[in-house]
Design goal:
It is built from three helices and eleven strands. InterPro entries: DUF2491 (IPR019621). It comes from Pseudomonas oryzihabitans.
Length: 214
């Protein structure tokens, strides 16, 4: 199964498509504009997820991941660096929206440090992952006890030079919340910038609908 098929399965069709067409950036998102999530959502999700919700935040930057076959992931980074939004589109239509909280961001000090954190002997890539007493199931990869991390490139238009790229090797987990169209996600990503600096980030996410953005 290709990365696009895995993302479609895990993210793109975990919620009903919003039906909104993309012209430029999706959902009229722009750098400098505020992003506001309906405050009622936090109350509605109390006790169901540990994802937290930001107040109104200006958008600092937007990265784009081209998955091929007309599919893109747009990553929207906010002024509050604890939060980011991912929008999955296919052929100009928004298919899914996920709000992520950064749980950790660790710079790797050596190759050994990287192998210990996200290598074949680490918990990342195994069929399940336990976090805060909650079990998440692996969405990407079918290999028995350890699946390979999935690779993709994030670019930051309009410059789009190599110095504006981040290489990712990632693994996605999720769990059902018992609410139609909403899932909770756990995303691990080994990230390398143009300077060769490597870090490992962990993010917890929740499916949003377009009407959650006000």
């Amino acid at each position: 199964m290709s990365l696009l098929q895995r993302i479609r399965s895990a993210l793109g069709f975990s919620a009903m498509p919003t039906g909104q067409l993309v012209v430029g950036y999706p959902l009229d998102l722009r750098e400098g504009l505020p992003l506001t999530i309906d405050p009622q959502l936090a109350s509605a999700m109390t006790g169901l997820t540990l994802v937290t919700f930001p107040g109104a935040q200006p958008i600092e930057n937007i990265g784009v991941i081209d998955l091929g076959a007309g599919a893109q992931l747009y990553r929207v980074y906010l002024a509050d660096e604890d939060y980011w939004l991912q929008v999955h589109t296919e052929h100009g239509q928004v298919e899914s929206i996920v709000l992520f909280n950064y749980l950790s961001w660790l710079p790797m000090e050596s190759q050994d440090h990287l192998l210990q954190t996200a290598g074949p002997a680490s918990p990342i890539g195994r069929p399940t992952y336990l976090l805060d007493g909650v079990t998440f199931s692996r969405d990407w990869g079918t290999a028995g006890n350890q699946a390979e991390l999935q690779s993709f490139t994030e670019r930051f238009p309009p410059a789009n030079h190599e110095r504006d790229q981040v290489q990712h090797r990632a693994m996605l987990y999720s769990r059902d919340l018992g609410i139609p169209g909403r899932r909770e996600f756990l995303l691990f990503s080994v990230e390398e910038n143009a300077l060769g600096e490597v870090s490992v980030s962990t993010s917890r996410g929740l499916t949003l609908f377009a009407h959650d953005l006000i």
